[in-house]
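COURSE: Structural Biology Practicum
ASSIGNMENT: Worksheet 4, Part C
STUDENT ID: 0417
INSTRUCTIONS: Below are two proteins. For each, the amino acid sequence is given first, followed by its structure token string. Answer the questions at the end about the second protein only.

PROTEIN I
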Amino acid sequence: MLALALAGCSPEREAEGAQQPARATVEVAPSTPVRGPVQRSVRATGTLFGEESVTIAAKVPGRVAEVFHDVGDVLAPGVPLAQLERVDFELALNERRRAFEQSLARLGLEELPEGEIEVETLPAVERARLQAENGHARYERGRLLRERVPPAMSEQDYLDLKTAWSVAQADHRIAQLGARAQLAEARAQKAQIESAQQRLLDTLHVVPGAQRQGAEYAVVQRRVSVGDLVTVGAPLFELVDPDPLELRVRLPERHGGSIELNQLARVRVESSSREFEGRVARISPAVDVRTRTFEVEIAVPNPARELRPGSFATAEIETEIEPDVLQVERASVATFAGVHKVFVIVDSLAQERVVELGREGDGLVEVLRGLDGSETIARRPRGLVTGTPVRVVVGGGAP
């Protein structure tokens, strides 16, 4: 019975085998590997920073009277940000002005002249000088009377005149010293007035001056409100110059010989689909001994404010051009599960080749391994497997 069954099945299997169609020929367009120049680059990731980041801190203590701007405002240098209460500083300034006026009155001056002052012209010193000159004149007249024969002045009167002259000279010197001390005090009081004026001006906090023409600052953070009592050094605002930005990346030390100033860098961020161009602006001369990397700063123009400080970014720093590199059309490469392959046409049959790819650009991709450049490759190799019959048609192939 088993023999009969097997004998009965054999014709059916032969009929099924005869019904299987032969593998169809696929029309493909040919593509040939080419050799040409390739721009080498170094890929790095980092964070975008403002070229200038400023923390506006309180220069004097006080209570916040007004806040003029908030987060997101873009401001030019010199624009007011916050005003502290002025009353205490105005009172201190007036107090110092009154003390200075009192010192000028003691000196007999209406204003303090610039530069050195001849103390002999001051009223108190001039009075002492005149008294000393008068004492000297009286002494000389007494000396002449004393020298007559017989003397016309007693010894005691002569000595009194001499003593009076000496006292007048001492009073003159004391007046000179006192005038110099009063002048020094007046100058100190004038400096105190200037300091009080500056403290009064410091109650108004403004956007600082920029290092380049036309620069602006954006308010990143506001840390105070009206009524807050702040101390010296308390942060009030965080400002950043958003154009240009600096992308700070760290590169392995093996790239130290290929990175140079002004090299082009192509920057991408997750918040935008477009590519931004920057230039290498600064290169650290030292390598971090812990990470064996060095820092590179890339200046990225940001006139439209599309990039934001603090964003994560990726940069391709173009280093050198390699003149003779094997490349194929990107459309000729099939990729699955991270494996790249092309189909080479050999004796009208497709043969799969696994390749290792490098830099991609302008529709071409670099082939590092897997081809020698003499092959003919199928473009858009969809549906091909090794052994598939193919017919080369210029301009044909899968759409």
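PROTEIN II
(use this one for the questions)
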Amino acid sequence: MLAQEIIRAKRDGQALDEAQINHFVRGLVDNSWSEGQVAALGMAVFLKGMGRDEAVLLTRAMMNSGRVMRWPDMPGPVLDKHSSGGVGDKVSLMLAPMVAACGGYVPMIAGRGLGHTGGTVDKLEAIPGYTTTPDPAKFDQIVRTLGCAIIGQTADLAPADKRFYATRDVTATVESVPLITASILSKKLAAGLEGLAMDIKCGNGAFASTPEFARELAESIVAVAGGAGLKTRALITDMNQILGSEVGNALEIAETVRYLTGEWREPRLHEITLALCAEMLVLGGLAADTAAARIKLQAGLDSGLAAEKFAKMVAALGGPADLLERPEAYLAAAPVTKPVPAPRDGHLAGMATRDLGVLIVELGGGRRKAGDAIDMRVGYSAVKPVGTVFKAGEPLAFIHAADDAAADRAVAAYLSACRITDAAPAAAPLVLAEVG
């Protein structure tokens, strides 16, 4: 079988069969397909599309391109959640211990920041000593004993996806629904899951900027996951403003600590977290419906068990045992903090959320290119949500920066990303749609 004939078939709009797809995926792993050939097939799929059956075959082939985790004799369901990415999206950090507190087992393999969106792995690495790359046996042991562990992607899980994504990233073929679907699900299936909750972010701070694209992606993921044997539900959630009150790696860990200990739970962040956790409990048979799941989840928070699960996970992966008691002793603080003063009286009517994500990168809190070091200290705190009423001079947020010049630039950029009006904006729903 020749690579160029497989490319030709897809170029001409034909559906690829299992043998052709397996040939391609083997070629990704053993390098028998050149970069040019990988790029050509990616572009052919981008332009001609893929049917659901093809997407299922591609997903399964990429899943089986490396190690596939198994969880024999697990006393509860193995569950996970995946987000398409947003600004201030720290839900995974609370969700894993909350589901574990309710009897689920969450072997979460998370990602790093991508473009303007933050990454769960980068946030966890703001905790001194926390290792996101434990050996497989240790990961298995922590999940089994504590109920959750959050780590980074390992080289032996879905290696075909890693190479294919890197090529798509530099050939303008990322925005293909079947390829996004296969990329996400190949890694999740390789983790040995029994149920998956998808959070498809939609809005001006999301990869899916329109409701139509978000729904297309959600329906594709739910259908392909089902075809591959993984029960999946998707929520399409609002990303037209920052999620939570803090953005930036160390700042988001601090907000997670406050959330789990009950010191402060920003209402939008709390609602999204509960909604996704509830879907996971229902998928895993741990609750009869989402209403019952929410009661169980709130009890796990109120009892302190979820916070205890998080603290033990951090310690088991090399972090400090008393992070929840003394976060300020461990989380690095930026040397400069400056308010973003409201320029006049009015209502905060909107945010250019993507621009605010890019601003984090410009402050040093994300990567301009692969391999860049990240400044864990920088970001925003006390972010006021859309709908807040202000007097002139009141802070919309506080900037945390490495120096005064960077802080001043960030204050100006933050203000330019905010829309202030005399009239109150219409309230927007948090969960835009449910699929599955």
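ANSWER KEY EXCERPT:
Q1: The chain has a mean pLDDT of 95.
Q2: The chain has 17 helices and twelve strands.
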